[in-house]
Amino acid sequence: MTEISVDASRVTHVAVGLSVALLTDLERMLPERSVLVLDEPDTIRARRGRERVSGFACVAGLVEAPTQDEAGAERLAALLPRPQRLRAVIPALEYGVVAAAALADAWGVPGAGVEAARTLRDKSLLRAVAGKHGIDQPEWEVVESADAIDAFRGRFGGRCVVKPANRQASLGVRLLDSGSDARAVWAQTTSADEARQRARHALPPKYLVEQRLNGPEFSVEALVRDGRAVFANITAKSVQHGDSPVELGHVAPAPLPPDVAERMVEATRQLLAATGFGTGVVHAEWILHEGRPHLVECAGRLPGDCIDLLVNLSHSCDLTQDYLRVLEGTAPRVAGGPGRAAAIRFVTAEPGVVTAVEGVDESGRAPGVVESEVYAELGATVGSVTSSWDRLGHVIATGATPEEATARAEHARDLIRVTTEAAS
Fold this sequence. Notes:
The protein has 424 residues and is an alpha+beta fold. It has 14 helices and 19 strands. The mean pLDDT is 93.
């Protein structure tokens, strides 16, 4: 492999993966030409990466690099000279978590640690580590066929969850009941892809089947410094009904009794210790089953779905700024308890061709609304919601309580009308 040449004379931060959301935050925090963005050639082209970064003054350059070569992540540091003024390496996307950890280790700045990053990127490795350390979780197996799914779910009355072990955004996740066709589900899960996000040489998919647990779902967003959680927020999730459990809403803080909230944060601390996670942010997802948190999965990066903004609004903090501080090796300005609540609700529509989008301005003027946005364009063809990428917009609102914030977000979402007609 050829060494990467780039002018990094003013670079202080290296972002592994192109995230417009992260760059939007960094634009207000960092000086001009201080951020070097690394991403795969395939995904830069597929996502029009150079066009996307052109408007950010903080970006010094967008460099093609093997950021999704998780098996050979340690080789990346040999291709890219360490910027002399480097302060932090930031895992900007899920598929760049391992490469970011490897660069941080090689360049001597805080990070998750390569072993921890690899564990979080592969749900089967995470399940094995969690089981070894006595963390509550569903029964599970790695599977390679529909027959294996049927054999597993026969132990649980025909109910189970099938999912990829190393993908994101609920992609390919399916819930099965006793009457579900495992072969059809296997075909759906194994064909689910996000070609614009994945490099051609990325690790091949692996699949899990898991016991299907009952209970509400939550996530813990923890700011971690040297293995210790210095801040934690709990977010409550709203999940789509049916066989594709896509998240359609969140509210922070979660309306939980203090003892239950503490059990969930403590479970996250146990997970940090089990994985050996060093420094950064974790987004750990849990299901409250029979009164105890059971692990769903965990990411070693900032949360998606605008959850970081919900944390900022509810705690009057800046999670991304504190994220940078711990990655730079300095103390964060840890937020206190939440002073209010913030909620997001996502916009969906019936499958078909989008013929009208109405009510966005009215939604934006509704009480407590902070953001109201629709991504779908007129003439676009939309399908069923089977992953996070299929949602069409979102509304964020604040309130004095989680219940008020949720009600306001739902009211504002319902003011938006995305009309579709069946595709001819």
